[in-house]
Structure formats: structure tokens, C-alpha cells
Design a protein that fits this description.
Distance between the termini: 50 Å
Number of strands: 5
Shape: elongated
Oligomer: single chain
Strand order of the largest sheet: 2-1-3
Structural class: mainly alpha
Helix content: 40-55%
Order of helices and strands: HHEHHEHHHEHHEEHH
Number of helices: 11
Largest sheet: 3 strands, mixed
Length: 283
């Protein structure tokens, strides 16, 4: 959205008011003005969620507004119809969840005016991440106060650019046989002793990527970050390789290699695998 300065509050109210008669043709001036004021306050709350990178519950969102029915999630549809959509914002409503279920209100899915009705419940986490990392609301609305920490239902601490998504994919592949916290097993039940948990391995992988300058420890090839649908060579994608295959995934026993190199190494020593793979790559 290209704007040179924040839109004055009076102009935002007028814009919202102009949208309302199309949906509520029977509303008088006073009722339209009251609804427009409420929609604008809710828009500010949702944008504050975004800049705070947090989610709040419906109950807390209404508390932050200062008035209204705390059990009613239908207000999100009005915010979408009269403010979010006309301003061209991404849909912020996925940032607000039902306190009891941890899911967006069913009303937000079933209401006839809401585009949320097209979103399956299984897609909610992806939609939440998409919304949280849009950070241009203050360019339109002006400076916003963050949501107080005591109202944070959940907080996202990491964006999902392609490299971060690739790290998560590689770590998930490495621990897909997790059996309890930090334990990894093979089909025969052998534990990979000392393996780190998901968060630890994500951090370790990020550190190793910098240390290895984004290249495979065995071949020197740069890692592929694109998926197959994006034209990426899947053999060159990132994977975690245990230096000593009898031990687990932990700092000092992990190196980053391509998926091809990981498969090709098998039970070879690092030195032998590097010698053979480099010869293969060079030829």
C-alpha cells in the first residue's frame, strides 16, 4: 500500500461509514456512526496484534476495546468488510482466537459476509503466520501501542522466510522418529543418544549454516532453498548429518550436507565420503 503519511482518523471513519449502508441499508446515521467507531477501534486492536507479533483471545480483544459483548466473535466480519478489505490490508482476523478452544471463533468462519468461511480450520496456523509478519499498518494508521504482554494468548518469535522454512524442514526430517523429548530412534529401537530437541536443532542448524557459509560440508556445493515446484534441485537441499553415526544430533556431532551427500555417505567416514563425493562432483 503506497501512502505518504498516516490517514487521519476522521477520514478513516468517513471511509468506514461509507461502506456500511451497502450491508446494513436500514441503519440510521447514529447507528452507522457508532458501528464505524467500533470498527475503527477493532482495526487498531488487530493492527496492534500484528506489530506485537502476538495473538489475543476474543475476550481480551473486547477488553482492550473497552466495551461490547465478550462472547461475540462476529465483530470480526464487520472489521473485514468495512476496514481491512477496503484498505487493502491482509486479513488480520486470524490473530484472534477463542479462549476455550484455541481456534478462531466458529462465527468467523460461518458468517455470510466473511471470507474466512473459505478457510479450512487446518489452515489456521499458516494463516496466522502470514498475518503476523505484515508490518506496514502504522504507515496507514499512524503509531500504534503494542498489545500489553498480559493479553498475549500466543507469540510468534520467528518469521518464515525461505531459509527459515528450509531449516525447519531439515530439522523435522532429522527428528521424524522422535520418541520422547530429545530421543531419536531407528526402526530397531536404538536411541540416538544426546540428541537435541526441535528448538535446539533449529538454532544449531542456523549457526552451522553461517559457519559453513551456506555450503555442504562434504561437497562444498551451495544449498538449494527452492522446493521442487519452484524449480529447485531436491538433491541439493539441506539435511543434517551425524558425524558419528552411532551418536545423536547435537552440537559437535552434526554437520550440514546436501540430501544427495547424506545418502551417498552411508556409513563411510567423513574423510572417505568427502574424497569420493568431491571426485564425483568434479567429474
Amino acid at each position: 500500500m503506497d501512502v505518504e503519511s498516516p490517514i487521519p482518523r476522521a477520514d478513516l471513519l468517513a471511509m468506514i461509514s461509507d461502506q456500511i449502508p451497502e450491508v446494513y441499508p436500514d441503519y440510521g446515521i447514529n447507528k452507522t456512526e457508532a458501528l464505524a467507531a467500533r470498527v475503527l477501534e477493532d482495526l487498531y486492536i488487530l493492527a496492534r496484534c500484528a506489530i506485537s507479533k502476538c495473538r489475543v483471545t476474543y475476550t481480551d480483544a473486547i477488553t482492550l476495546r473497552g466495551y461490547g459483548n465478550r462472547q461475540n466473535g462476529r465483530w470480526l466480519d464487520d472489521v473485514y468488510s468495512f476496514a481491512i478489505s477496503p484498505l487493502g490490508f491482509p486479513d488480520l482476523t486470524m490473530l484472534v482466537v477463542n479462549a476455550a478452544t484455541g481456534q478462531p471463533s466458529e462465527d468467523a468462519f460461518e458468517a455470510r459476509r466473511s471470507k474466512l468461511s473459505e478457510i479450512q480450520i487446518s489452515e489456521v496456523p499458516r494463516e496466522q503466520n502470514r498475518c503476523i509478519w505484515f508490518d506496514a499498518y502504522e504507515a496507514v494508521l499512524g503509531p500504534l501501542e503494542p498489545i500489553p504482554a498480559e493479553y498475549h494468548y500466543a507469540r510468534s518469535v520467528m518469521p518464515e522466510p525461505p531459509l527459515e522454512a528450509e531449516i525447519r524442514r531439515a530439522v523435522s526430517n532429522a527428528i521424524q522418529r522422535v520418541n520422547g523429548v530429545g530421543k531419536m530412534t531407528v526402526k530397531v529401537g536404538k536411541e540416538y543418544v544426546g540428541s537435541g530437541d526441535y528448538s535446539e536443532l533449529c538454532l544449531l542448524t542456523s549457526q552451522l549454516l553461517k559457519k559453513q557459509k551456506g555450503r555442504c560440508a562434504l561437497t562444498g556445493q551451495p544449498f538449494e532453498t527452492r522446493s521442487a515446484t519452484e524449480g529447485g534441485n531436491q538433491d541439493d537441499r539441506l539435511s543434517l548429518d551425524r558425524i558419528d553415526n552411532s551418536l545423536g544430533y547435537y552440537d559437535g556431532n552434526v554437520q550440514l550436507v546436501t540430501q544427495f551427500a547424506n545418502r551417498a555417505r552411508g556409513q563411510l567416514s567423513i574423510q572417505e565420503a568427502r574424497r569420493r563425493l568431491i571426485q564425483y562432483v568434479e567429474t
